[in-house]
Design goal:
- The protein is of the alpha/beta class.
- It has one domain: Rossmann fold.
- Helices cover 38% and strands 17% of the residues.
- Strands 3-4-2-5-1-6-7-8 form an 8-stranded mixed β-sheet, sandwiched between helices.
- Helix 7 links the parallel strand 7 and strand 8.
- The longest helix has 21 residues.
- It is globular, with a radius of gyration of 18 Å.
């Protein structure tokens, strides 16, 4: 049986890798086998969970002249726990400027080695905020998306464009990807985020407060799931990620009924935009 597939999308710096790592460890908590695929050329997905460093898939393919059979999964996949593996796609000097081609090569390699059949879930930690042809291979092949935002207008602007692209791809091009919901990361003043939810009817999955305890975990390749003790606030976030994993493990609703906003309206959501001149 092929894995269920989910992409973590959002503006660069919104916290997608933190979210992807914690959802991955939530599946570990539930005893479900998952492959976390890092699509960022900085290759920071594996660093969020493990000190081990293996070559990226693209490095291995280029070294072996794109002979898919000669790159074994164990050459490039890092085991983190008995249930969580991580694979970095990496950058490609050969395919520089064509990250869509990198994604296509990855899916060819997946098929050659039946990678998607080895896992219950495959989670893609997506490179940045681009929603155009660069991400078309994901839009064509991945079932679900979880969007990650911060509370500033720039991050919400990107989310709005991503939602619009997902809707257009699904309705006009029969892409399978559907949006599950929105995570608000590093929350301090959620007014703009709450206004956006009210006007678009997007489903709020989790609000993560801006906590130094979360920032400190990354340096030690840890998550909330590896902490022996947690205060009530951290436990609430832990439980929120488990609920997201349970949702993805099931059959999330198709949220085509959500609305998007005109671009210019995004900039009026912040509290500062509401003040008189």
């Amino acid at each position: 049986m092929s894995a269920k597939t989910t992409a973590i999308l959002g503006k660069g710096g919104a916290g997608k890798t933190l979210v992807a790592a914690h959802i991955g460890m939530a599946f570990d908590y539930l005893g479900e086998k998952i492959l976390l695929v890092g699509c960022d050329q900085k290759q920071d997905t594996v660093r969020a969970l493990s000190p081990e460093r293996r070559g990226s898939l693209m490095e291995a393919l280029e070294t072996r002249e794109f002979e898919y059979a000669h790159v074994r999964p164990e050459d490039v996949i890092v085991p983190v726990t008995p249930y969580v593996d991580v694979l970095e796609l990496g950058p490609s000097p050969v395919l520089v400027g064509h990250y869509a081609a990198v994604l296509d090569e990855a899916f060819h390699w997946f098929r050659r080695h039946d990678v998607l059949e080895q896992y219950a879930q495959v989670l893609f930690d997506v490179t940045d905020e681009r929603w155009d042809a660069v991400l078309a291979p994901l839009f064509r092949r991945v079932q679900h998306a979880v969007a990650v935002t911060r509370e500033n207008a720039e991050s919400l602007f990107v989310i709005n464009r991503l939602v619009r692209a997902i809707q257009i791809g699904a309705v006009e091009m029969n892409h399978p990807m559907t949006l599950v919901g929105l995570i608000n990361n590093a929350s301090r003043d959620p007014l703009a985020y709450e206004r956006y939810l009210d006007q678009t009817r997007l489903f709020p999955l989790l609000t993560i407060p801006d906590l130094p305890e979360l920032a400190s975990l990354k340096a030690f390749h840890r998550t909330l799931f590896t902490l022996k003790s947690k205060n009530s606030g951290l436990q609430r976030i832990h439980n929120g990620f488990v609920k997201i994993a349970e949702l993805l493990r099931g059959d999330p609703l198709n949220l085509y009924t959500v609305s998007t906003l005109p671009d210019e309206q995004i900039w009026r959501l912040s509290p500062a935009a509401s003040l008189p001149n």
